[in-house]
Amino acid sequence: MNEKKRTIALGANTSQYVWSTRSELIKVLIERGYHVVVLAPRDQFSQKFSAIGAEYIEIPMSMNTNPVSDFGIFLKFLNAMRQSKPDAYLGFTVKPNVYGSLAANVLNIPVINNIAGLGAPFVTRSAITRIVKQLYRAGLAKSALVFFQNRDDHALFRDEKILRHDRTDILPGSGVDLTRFKYTPRVQNDPHTPFRFLLVSRMLWDKGIGEYADAARDIKTRHPNTEVYLLGSMGIDNPASIPSKTIQRWVKEGIVSYLDFKEDVIPEIIAADCVVLPSYREGTPRTLLEACAIGRPIITADAVGCRDVVDDAVNGFMCAPKDSRDLAQKMEQMILLGPDARIEMGRQGRLKMEAQYDERTVIGKYLDTLKQTLQG
């Protein structure tokens, strides 16, 4: 008689997030004999899970924080878990970490959380920040393990007593697939080829995109043979979303070019000379990991999560947060370095990814934690 498969549920705030950051984990779990259920809002990525052997259950949710209306999200998670009967629940992003964990606690399902960046409530402190802290405190109270993606977030949860147990560990973000994101040094045979900067992100103010546009305006006055690209989704359900008319105005002004969302960002990273992300706060920014893996120098802010990925003047430059003038200076430094120095920066970035950010390390930690949790 065949032994019943163990079921693992994953919860996140978008199907896109699960697909782009956790699809390899799902594949490995399925290869190891687990049944995997994805609990997330429906988007263009939701249909992909069945193709790799996972089940999908829709959990609609808004990005706005309202504990009264969010009670419905808790009920949806509760119903989905009663339906799928998981043996363990893996939570990612804020609301699935809170409401998914609470639902799992009600049903005595072991929980493993991943704090993948704290977002707007921890960038600008407000009454919402206090509410989110209380929600985290409740959601994580019984977790078997809480993964953090950087030491700053781990220290914040400990120091502010958001987390009152020591069942924690630190991961190198979601890691990067070093076989898919192959080392590809930038070659420029024509000195007249425009220098290309690239920012890959959802179009949110707290990703530093406003500062990037201001810096682009400055750079183009002194280095007109420069291209500054934005790549990512507009019109997102998020309080920090940048209006599409603002981006269109920047494009019309000629300071940026907008590429919209692309599922495969590899060709655009390969075509770039430098990848920029002056974000205010991150868990570990995957776009920078991918850029470093391919061999591109980076510019990022001296901010939580971002600073861990850059060794200043080794694989890129660090700029002051929320400072478009300093960002423009670092962008100019990158232009003036010359191609050989940038290639060496890119090589150092690749070595850093191989040493610290291999996705296999992250997946291995999840497999070990699940084995221990399910045997406990």
Separation, N- and C-terminal Cα atoms: 24 Å
CATH class of the largest domain, anyone?
A: Alpha Beta
Low-confidence stretches: none
**Average pLDDT over all residues:** 93
What is the CATH homology-level superfamily of the largest domain? Glycogen Phosphorylase B
Rg, please?
Answer: 21 Å
Secondary structural class: alpha/beta
Q: Strand order across the biggest sheet?
A: 3-2-1-4-5-6-7
Helical content, roughly? Answer: 40-55%
Shape: globular
Count of distinct structural domains: 2
Give a description of the structure.
The protein has 376 residues and is α/β, with parallel strands linked by helices. It folds into two domains: 7-175 and 358-375, 3-Layer(aba) Sandwich (Rossmann fold), CATH 3.40.50.2000; 195-356, 3-Layer(aba) Sandwich (Rossmann fold), CATH 3.40.50. Helix content is 43%, strand content 15%. Helix 2 packs across helix 3 and helix 10 crosses helix 12. The longest helix is centred in the first third of the chain and has 18 residues, at 67-84. It is globular, with a radius of gyration of 21 Å.
What is the element layout, followed by pairings?
Layout: E1 7-11, H1 15-31, E2 35-40, E3 55-58, H2 67-84, E4 88-92, H3 94-106, E5 111-115, H4 120-123, H5 127-139, E6 145-148, H6 151-159, E7 168-170, E8 195-200, H7 209-222, E9 226-231, H8 244-253, E10 257-258, H9 266-271, E11 274-277, H10 286-294, E12 298-301, E13 316-319, H11 324-337, H12 339-356, H13 359-375
Parallel strand pairs: 1-2, 1-4, 2-3, 4-5, 5-6, 6-7, 8-9, 8-11, 9-10, 11-12, 12-13
Helix pairs in contact: 2-3, 3-5, 7-11, 10-12
